[in-house]
Amino acid sequence: MRVAVLQLAYGEGAEEPVAERADRVAELVRTSGAGHDLVVLPELWSAGGFAVRDWEERSQSLTFSLPPALAPVAQAAQEIGAVVHAGSVVERTGEPGPDGRHLWNTSVVLGPDGKVVATYRKVHRFGFGGGEPRLMEAGTELVVVDLPAPADALPAGLSTCYDLRFPELYRGLVELGAQLFLVPAAWPAPRVEAWRLLLRARAIEDQCFVVACNTAGTHAGLRMGGRSAVIDPWGRVLAEAGTEQEVLSVEIDPGLVATARTDFPVLADRRL
């Protein structure tokens, strides 16, 4: 199973309008994702992970069709015949959620035909009362998706950025059959060592592959951490990006999950 992780870099505002960024990202999917089974993009690349003031303006509906930021990416996915985890968007819904808000941080997975095969609304909102908790609703459902290609693709558990700090979410995904965790993120540079450590911890404790795509560049002037990575079920780092825009291309062996869980059956010894 060939995986491409597209660690994007960008600035904000007038430096690159969202429509131009969407076209640039789609071209990157088309050129760097060709020949891969799975392509992964980072969190909120169209809206800006910390560009809080712009979220309402850049929010997009997923109700009837793909929003403008994702339509070019879907076309690229269809052209290269790959599954594309398109990162996440600020989703806008007509009906408010339980807290009366209309915005969600929603991940979208596209099939090789360019159609949506899964969505996931971020459960853990980052901001300690500001940012996401102030403006967005919290998701409530865990999502594990059977990727439509290749034939030996592993069941993928979806999570987003700050979710990484909550191991119970990942254990819940394992209970639902996950053998691969997909983690788009907008994780800032000051805390990037926590990111690197937690990725390996989630892989080791749940005996899953972890494919994590962070952002480079800046979000609202905040420097992002990069260090996107692919980790195997033993916690070995198969590939890791630097801090600038970069593409990782990694071949993973889907059978390694079953091997790890058989040779070292730690999950069978759980008591709580």
UniProtKB/TrEMBL annotation:
PANTHER family linked: DEAMINATED GLUTATHIONE AMIDASE, NITRILASE-RELATED
| Family under the similarity heading | Belongs to the carbon-nitrogen hydrolase superfamily. NIT1/NIT2 family.
Which SUPFAM superfamilies does the record match to this protein? Carbon-nitrogen hydrolase
Q: Which residues form a coiled coil?
A: none
Keyword Hydrolase found: yes
> Domain CN hydrolase spans what residues?
1-254
Q: Which UniProt keywords apply?
A: Hydrolase
Identify the InterPro entries for this entry: C-N_Hydrolase (IPR003010), C-N_Hydrolase_sf (IPR036526), UPF0012_CS (IPR001110)
Answer whether the UniProt record assigns the keyword Cytoplasm to this protein: no
**What name does the UniProt record give this protein?**
Predicted amidohydrolase
Q: Which CDD domains match?
A: nitrilase_5
A GO term, aspect molecular function: hydrolase activity
Q: Which organism is it from?
A: Ornithinimicrobium cerasi
